[in-house]
UniProtKB/TrEMBL annotation:
Alphabetized Pfam families for the sequence: Choline_sulf_C, Sulfatase
Gene of this entry: betC
Organism: Phaeobacter gallaeciensis
Listed transmembrane segments: none
Every Sulfatase N-terminal domain range: 5-349
Native organism taxonomy: Bacteria, Pseudomonadati, Pseudomonadota, Alphaproteobacteria, Rhodobacterales
Domain named Choline sulfatase enzyme C-terminal: residues: 452-504
Keywords from the UniProt entry: Hydrolase, Metal-binding
Record-level GO cellular component terms: cytoplasm
Stated name of the protein: Choline-sulfatase
UniProt GO MF annotations: choline-sulfatase activity; metal ion binding
EC number(s) on file: 3.1.6.6
Similarity section: Belongs to the sulfatase family.
UniProt-listed PANTHER family: IDURONATE 2-SULFATASE
InterPro entries, alphabetized: Alkaline_phosphatase_core_sf (IPR017850), Choline-sulfatase (IPR017785), Choline_sulf_C_dom (IPR025863), Sulfatase_CS (IPR024607), Sulfatase_N (IPR000917)
Length: 513
C-alpha cells in the first residue's frame, strides 16, 4: 500500500475569506495562507452549512447537515452516536488529535479523537439554548451586541490570545512527538485539527499585529443599509445585536475592522508555525494541509455584524488545500464544510464502505487533483437565534436562494451582483429559477415539522440546564489529562533514556552528544 499522507487542518473562527490576502484583500497581510494557496488549491465558493459556531463545526465533523443530526444552535448536543471524520480516520489507522476549539456540547468531549490536548474555550452545556417561542427577545447574558464593536482596539493579552497561544503550543508539541515516534520506528500517519478562536470578536488585537496596519488604510464597509431598508430577517438580526438602535461612528467601525485584520494576521502566524513544525519534523512534503473556518463575519457590510445569516461575508469560508498530489489552482465550484469528511476519507484511502451513516458531502480531492467535478452546490441551514422558523440556503452555480417561512424569499445572482445588492426573487427574468428553487426547498425540508422538533429540544435542554445549575450531574467541560509523574525526568526513569527520547532529531550513532 502506498504511503498515506498525514493530514493537518488549521481552522479559524469567524474568518471571512474576503479579509485574506490569499483571496485578494488589498492590504491583508497573510503570507502563510498566501504561500499555501500558491502551492495548493484555493476554493472560491466554499460555504459553512450553518453560520454559527457549534452547528457549523458539527456539520464539519460529521459530514451531515445540521437538520439530520439535530445540531441546531450553540447549545445543541453533538450526540456521541454520530460518526465523525476522527472516528473514520482512527479506524483507517491514523493517530488523531484535536488541539483547540470545537465547541462540543454534551458529555462526549472527544468524538473520535484519540488525543485532545487542550480544553475548549466555550461552555459545553445547555446554557446557550435559544427560545423560539420568544424568538424576538434579546438574550443579554451571552449574546452579541454593539458594545463589542465599540470596545475594539489593542491589548497586550485577552482570553482569546491566551487560548490561541496555548492551542498553538500544544499542537506543535504534539506534532513534534509524532516526529519522535517516527524517529523511533512508528510509521502510522497522523491527522490533527488545530482550531483557533481568532479572528472572532471581541475585536481586540495584540500591539504587534495592530501595528502591521495603518489606520488610514482601513476601509469602511462598501455597502450598508439602514434598518428600515433591510429584509425582515436582517432586521431581526439588527435588533438582536442592537445594531438597530445603537449607532456606531465611522471611527468605531474602522477600529473594529482594523483589529479584525490584525487578528487575521495573528491567525496567519499560527498557520506559519504549524507549517514550520511540519517542516521541522520532516513531514511537510507528506502532509495535506487544509486551512478553513467555521463561518465568516459581516464586519459592518449591509449594516450587519458577526454571522447568523447567509450573505457572502457571513456564510462563505476560506478553504485552501495544499500537499502531495494537489494541483495548484483555483476552484470555482460551490462546496461546503460537509465535503471535508468524504475528502479526508478519500485522502486516507477509504471509501463509502467505511461510513456508519449517510453523509451529505462529496470528496473534493478530484478537484484538488485537477479533475473535473460536475457538482457546484452548497446547502445551508440556520436554526438558532432571532428567527421563528428555519432559514435555508441553496447555492448552485451563480445563484443563491434563501428561504424562511416567515419572510419573503431572496434570490441573488452572485456573478452579476457579487455584493447581493438586488434581490431578484420577484424579477421576471429569474421567474423560472425562483420557482424551481421554491419547489426544491419544499421538497427538501418540512419546515413546520423541523420547527416543532427544534422547539421541543429547546424546552428539554432548558429544563436539563436548570437541573444542572442546581447541582445535577457533573460539568462536561473538558480537562486534558496530565500526569506530572510521567513527564520530563522522574526518579523511576533513566534520565539518559529520557533525554534521548525527547531529543529531536535524535543523535545518529557515532555523533558526539
Amino acid at each position: 500500500m502506498p504511503k498515506r499522507p498525514n493530514i493537518v487542518i488549521i481552522m479559524a473562527d469567524q474568518l471571512a475569506p474576503q479579509f485574506c490576502g490569499a483571496y485578494g484583500h488589498p492590504i491583508a497581510k497573510t503570507p502563510h495562507m498566501d504561500a499555501l494557496a500558491a502551492r495548493g488549491l484555493r476554493f472560491d465558493a466554499a460555504y459553512c452549512n450553518s453560520p454559527l459556531c457549534a452547528p457549523s463545526r458539527f456539520a464539519f465533523m460529521s459530514g451531515q447537515l445540521i437538520s439530520r443530526i439535530a445540531a441546531y444552535d450553540n447549545a445543541s448536543e453533538f450526540r456521541a452516536t454520530v460518526p465523525t471524520f476522527a472516528h473514520y480516520l482512527q479506524a483507517l489507522g491514523y493517530r488523531t488529535c484535536l488541539s483547540g476549539k470545537m465547541h462540543f456540547v454534551g458529555p462526549d468531549q472527544k468524538h473520535g479523537f484519540q488525543d485532545r490536548v487542550t480544553t475548549d474555550i466555550y461552555p459545553s452545556d445547555f446554557a446557550w439554548t435559544p427560545d423560539w417561542e420568544a424568538h424576538d427577545e434579546r438574550i443579554d447574558k451571552w449574546y452579541h451586541n454593539m458594545q463589542t464593536v465599540k470596545e475594539s482596539g489593542v491589548a497586550v493579552a485577552t482570553f482569546q490570545t491566551d487560548y490561541d497561544d496555548e492551542v498553538g503550543f500544544a499542537a506543535r508539541r504534539w506534532l513534534i512527538d509524532r516526529g519522535r515516534d517516527k524517529a523511533h520506528g512508528s510509521d502510522a500517519p497522523f491527522a490533527m485539527v488545530a482550531s483557533f478562536i481568532h479572528p472572532h470578536d471581541p475585536y481586540v488585537a495584540k500591539p504587534e499585529w495592530w501595528d502591521l496596519y495603518s489606520e488610514d488604510d482601513i476601509d469602511l464597509p462598501e455597502f450598508t443599509l439602514a434598518a428600515s431598508e433591510q429584509d425582515p430577517f436582517s432586521r431581526r438580526l439588527m435588533d438582536g445585536i442592537e445594531a438597530s438602535y445603537v449607532p456606531l461612528s465611522n471611527e468605531e467601525v474602522r477600529r473594529a475592522r482594523h483589529a479584525y485584520l490584525a487578528n487575521v494576521s495573528y491567525f496567519d502566524s499560527k498557520v506559519g508555525e504549524m507549517v514550520q513544525t511540519l517542516n521541522d519534523i520532516g513531514e511537510l512534503d507528506n502532509t495535506i494541509v487544509i486551512v478553513t473556518a467555521d463561518h465568516g463575519d459581516m464586519l459592518g457590510e449591509r449594516g450587519l455584524w458577526y454571522k447568523m445569516n447567509f450573505f457572502e461575508n457571513s456564510a462563505r469560508v476560506p478553504l485552501i488545500i495544499a500537499g502531495p498530489d494537489v494541483v495548484p489552482g483555483i476552484a470555482s465550484n460551490a462546496c461546503s464544510l460537509v465535503d471535508i469528511l468524504p475528502t479526508l476519507i478519500d485522502i486516507a484511502g477509504g471509501d463509502e464502505t467505511v461510513l456508519g451513516e449517510p453523509v451529505d458531502g462529496r470528496s473534493l480531492m478530484p478537484l484538488a487533483r485537477g479533475e473535473a467535478d460536475p457538482k457546484d452546490e452548497a446547502i445551508g441551514e440556520y436554526c438558532a437565534e432571532m428567527t421563528p422558523y428555519p432559514v435555508f440556503m441553496i447555492r448552485r452555480g451563480a445563484l443563491k436562494y434563501i428561504h424562511c417561512d416567515a419572510d419573503p424569499p431572496q434570490l441573488y445572482d452572485l456573478v452579476a451582483d457579487p455584493q447581493e445588492r438586488v434581490n431578484v426573487a420577484s424579477d421576471p427574468t429569474y421567474a423560472a429559477e425562483a420557482k424551481a428553487f421554491a419547489t426544491e426547498v419544499h421538497a427538501r425540508w418540512d419546515s413546520r415539522q423541523l420547527r416543532e422538533d427544534i422547539i421541543s429540544t429547546q424546552k428539554s435542554r432548558r429544563a436539563l440546564h436548570a437541573a444542572m445549575e442546581s447541582g445535577a450531574g457533573e460539568a462536561w467541560d473538558y480537562n486534558p489529562p496530565s500526569d506530572a509523574s510521567q513527564q520530563y525526568v522522574r526518579n523511576h526513569m533513566d534520565w539518559t533514556v529520557a533525554a534521548a527520547r525527547y531529543r529531536f532529531p535524535p543523535l545518529k550513532e557515532g555523533e558526539p552528544e
